[in-house]
Design a protein that fits this description.
Radius of gyration: 44 Å
Helix content: 25-40%
Strand content: 25-35%
Number of strands: 27
Number of helices: 8
Shape: flat
Oligomer: single chain
Length: 492
């Protein structure tokens, strides 16, 4: 027993001697100073902030009109599908008015059909004549432009350039036209091209319902084309006497313009006459009162407008889900009165979230779209999720007197357990240098603008060595750009 205790004491004594020797040597060698070695490592710069999980889609809903709640079909926390009805107002009165308006519309349509079936043939003839005249007017206008006037243009349909010239052998004579007039003509030719294309498309959809309105549009189009032709005629008439060496050609130009203007003017006159004939078509006596077909068509349109208005009012008594999601607010009560525009239902998308955080102006300059992000949640403290910065709001927001900017982070692999409103601790990697020379920041001395270390150059000797610093990581490690090499030891 004594022998065992003696050996144990001897071992403890020996260890104590070794520790004392190490401490003494250390003090003698470093004078109580610590040392650090230059090593290669990764330097990562991060900005750490706290954010909140928010849904990609979130909407507050209310009725567009006041009334009493008729039905509520969901409760808070329930999932809804796009288009699913959530709540309705009591719409009994509107529904009754709508049924009445639909009956009136049906009645007016029947009367219109009877009028058209029993009206004198001249009404039908006038309708057909106006239809044909609209199409003939388009043909006249199209011919006037493309076959008579476009000879004065280059690229008449795409990029019209008004240019009148005559080629004689190797000589080209250009007629001088005021610049402002040329610009005006070019712009009007572009406008005419759009008119002709639109008019041609409209001729394919003319019906008895839009005959009069199409005639009015055609007359307006012809008037616009006529003004364009007036400008071209003005340009031709500016040719100076010196140009009369080409008198025959100039006269041909003037004839072409005159013919084009005549075609368009005649089309306007013919179209107006055809429209007037339809408006003055004979009427038919029904129940002792004279009603024209056109007047009855107006009544049909009025009834259609009434139906449309009531259907719109009925739609305003229904709230439907605009997208798939979960109900986060539901304050509606059956029989309760609600005001127009008051929010009492909220829906958030359920499987699409982002994290929103505020970054102070001190750090916002470091953050860029695409920066990688590591995220942990208070709800899942031992798990780390990966993400990326996908949005930086351009406008600032003031928080406690400090300028901040909102950013949004997308998770790379979102999970259903991540819910709206969770607190997220995020670290945004703003920069990274791999395999670079590093030292702990506390091993470096700064005096004014001078940055240096005390480099150990021999046993017991040190040398003041200026260095250049690079990136600093959040853990206190700093990149050494110059002044030291891997393996160098510094004292601090």
């Amino acid at each position: 027993m004594f022998s065992f205790l003696s050996k144990k004491i001897l071992i403890y004594f020996s260890l104590a001697i070794v520790v004392i020797i190490i401490v003494v040597v250390s003090l003698n060698n470093n004078n109580g100073k610590e040392v650090a070695t230059v090593v290669r490592a990764d330097v990562v710069q991060e900005v750490a902030v706290t954010g909140k999980v928010k849904p990609n889609q979130n909407v507050d809903l209310g009725f567009d009109k006041s009334g009493r709640v008729g039905n509520v079909y969901i409760s808070i926390g329930e999932n809804v599908k796009q288009g699913q009805i959530i709540a309705t107002l009591d719409a009994g009165e509107i529904s009754a008015d709508l049924s009445k308006s639909k009956a009136i519309l049906l009645e007016e349509n029947i009367k219109l059909r009877e009028l058209k079936n029993t009206a004198p043939a001249s009404f039908s003839d006038a309708s057909k004549n106006l239809d044909a005249t609209i199409k003939e007017s388009f043909a006249d206008a199209d011919n006037a432009i493309r076959n008579r006037v476009d000879q004065f243009f280059k690229n008449s349909t795409t990029n019209p350039q008004f240019e009148v010239s005559i080629t004689s052998g190797n000589f080209i004579h250009y007629f001088n036209v005021p610049y402002d007039l040329v610009v005006d003509i070019n712009n009007k030719r572009k406008e005419v091209e759009i008119i002709l294309i639109d008019w041609q498309n409209r001729t394919l959809n003319i019906s008895s319902d839009n005959l009069i309105s199409e005639a009015d549009k055609a007359i307006n189009d012809l008037n616009t084309i006529s003004k364009f032709l007036d400008k071209v005629a003005e340009a031709i008439n500016t040719f100076s006497p010196a140009d009369y060496a080409y008198e025959t050609t100039v006269n041909n130009y003037k004839t072409a313009i005159s013919s084009a203007r005549g075609e368009v003017s005649g089309a306007v006159s013919t179209l107006v006459t055809a429209k007037d004939k339809l408006n003055l078509a004979p009427t038919l006596a029904i129940d002792g009162q004279f009603e024209s077909v056109l007047a009855q068509e107006a009544k049909v349109k009025q009834a259609e407008a009434s139906v449309f208005s009531l259907e719109s009012s009925l739609d305003k008594t229904v709230i439907s889900a605009p997208f798939d999601g979960v109900v986060t607010l539901q304050d509606a009560k059956v029989g309760g009165a609600v005001s127009a525009g008051k929010v009492f239902i909220s829906i958030a998308s359920q499987d699409q979230f982002y994290i929103e955080a505020n970054i102070s102006e001190i750090h916002i300059g470091k953050i860029k779209l695409g920066n990688p992000v590591s995220v942990d949640f208070d709800a899942f403290p031992k798990e780390v999720f990966s993400g990326v910065v996908f949005y930086i709001e351009p406008g600032d927001v003031i928080i406690d007197g400090v300028v901040n900017y909102k950013i949004r982070v997308n998770l790379m692999n979102p999970e259903s357990r991540i819910k709206n409103g969770l607190t997220a601790n995020i670290k945004i990697q703003t920069d990274k240098k791999s395999d670079v020379l590093t030292l702990p920041l506390y091993a470096i001395t700064k005096e004014g603008d001078e940055v240096f270390v005390n480099k150990i150059v021999a046993k017991g000797k040190k040398q003041k060595t200026p260095i250049t610093l690079g990136l600093t990581s959040n853990d206190g490690t700093v990149e050494i750009l110059s002044g030291l090499e891997e393996g160098d030891i510094v004292e601090f």
